[in-house]
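Final report, closing paragraph on structural work. Over the funding period we assembled a curated collection of sequence-structure pairs, and we close with a single example.
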Amino acid sequence: MDTQKDNNNSPEEIIHSVIRKLSKLNYVKPTDLPNIDLYMDQITTFMDSHLSDIKRNNDDKILTKTMINNYSKNKILPPSDKKKYSKDHIIVLLFIYYFKNIMSITDIQTLLWPLTENFFDNKKSLNLEEIYKTVFKLETKQIADIARSISKQFKLSEESFKDIKDDDEREYLQLFSFICLLSFDIFIKKYMIESLLDDYISKKEKKTKEDKKAEKKKEK
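Its predicted structure, as stored:
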């Protein structure tokens, strides 16, 4: 999403422009997923072309070879098959792309490991593609609510610092207030994500211990 061309617009115009763009952003729709395996170069090209609207600057890269290799080394992304990547690989890369801005690599590993372990290259009815379709549908339904929430936060920020006489100073402080509201929203949701993952890990570790105890009892 290249915002540089909006530099001459007022903050309000930029906000409304971004909100309008939300409904038109490029997403990798389930129907866009390729049915053939791709080489790494083809993967990066595919991601770059389908997610171009999300770029902050035109020369930004959505995905690079180095990123893919790092994800594989960290065992977040399953290994390729003779240097080719399947539809399931692309789905995992898409999840990583969205998660990496708000989650640590460790948290992404925690979240994605059960997904890749149980559903990657799964020929059953509930496979990775079906999961992606379901999540995609849920997320696209949220766009209108997100736009309304952003508009509400912007209106709240506009009500702040109205008594400041200097136009530039008032505009900056209102912008600062708006960014603080957006950041607080992200902070709370990030905290919630981390808490949910910590709880998941705790329950998983507890179950593992209980299973080990049960096995020892059987051996006796």
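Residues 10 and 211 are 61 Å apart (CA to CA). The mean pLDDT is 88. We thank the funder for supporting this effort.
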